[in-house]
Amino acid sequence: MLQHPQVKGPGVGLLGFSLGADICLSMASFLKNISATVSINGSGSSGNSTIHYKQISIPPLGLDLKRIKVTFSGILDIVDIRNDIVEKFENPSIIPIEKAQGPILFIAGQDDHNWRSDLNVQTASERLQAHGKEKPRIILYPGTGHYIEPPYFSVCPASVHKLFNKVVIWGGELRAHSKAQVDAWKQILSFFSQHLGGTHKGVSPKL
Ligand SMILES: *[C@@H]1O[C@H](CO)[C@@H](O)[C@H](O)[C@H]1NC(C)=O
Ligand SMILES: *[C@@H]1O[C@H](CO)[C@@H](O)[C@H](O)[C@H]1NC(C)=O
Ligand SMILES: *[C@@H]1O[C@H](CO)[C@@H](O)[C@H](O)[C@H]1NC(C)=O
């Protein structure tokens, strides 16, 4: 990306959602020239498999399928299956985000049914501060589920989860979630324009 003729450099911004957010947080922690990162409902830890970078491996937190709940409609609720982060921010499964060069914006829905995003964000924030970093920017949206997409995408309340090959609920109330999607997009654009030296102010999404 840094060599792409349309990329101004010297750094790039990363935006990821869910597992993609954890990949972005890992890239920001280990790779150079990442100037700003946005994590939308990332877990901040290594979840179902080990993250490898050169000699470093971050072990998975692990999960317990016995904690899956089945809702009355037969759809799974997996919000409690991940193991607790027992040693809090020093847990070895947490991505070492304090190594990131640039700032991180955490966006989380308080009705996320994939995992406890708000708790994960809290742990990430404590870890950054314990390592002498500034408190990161955190935006929590009430009534918002896991699947925070760009504005005006229809709210996805449930869909097939690849890990289980079954339908799981993602959470979110229609109105609150839709409003969060519109607001989150504005916040992301302004964060990137602030930290990637954007020239145009108040960029409006063409959606
Ligand atoms: C990475 O950042 C450094 C410091 O800003 C810069 O000198 C270098 O050119 C950048 N690398 C690339 C590939 O853009
Ligand atoms: C990953 O998920 C599968 C369930 O699909 C589970 O059987 C396995 O134990 C999980 N592995 C870890 C390390 O959590
Ligand atoms: C996912 O993000 C939404 C808002 O973006 C937040 O309300 C929700 O709590 C998050 N989920 C988790 C598990 O953090």
From TrEMBL:
Residue span, BAAT/Acyl-CoA thioester hydrolase C-terminal domain: 1-197
GO cellular component: peroxisome
Coiled coil: none
Matching Pfam families: BAAT_C (PF08840)
InterPro entries: AB_hydrolase_fold, BAAT_C
GO molecular function, one term: fatty acyl-CoA hydrolase activity
Superkingdom of origin: Eukaryota
GO biological process: acyl-CoA metabolic process; fatty acid metabolic process
Protein name: Acyl-coenzyme A thioesterase 4-like
Species in which this protein is naturally found: Marmota marmota marmota (Alpine marmot)
Gene that produces this protein: LOC107134944
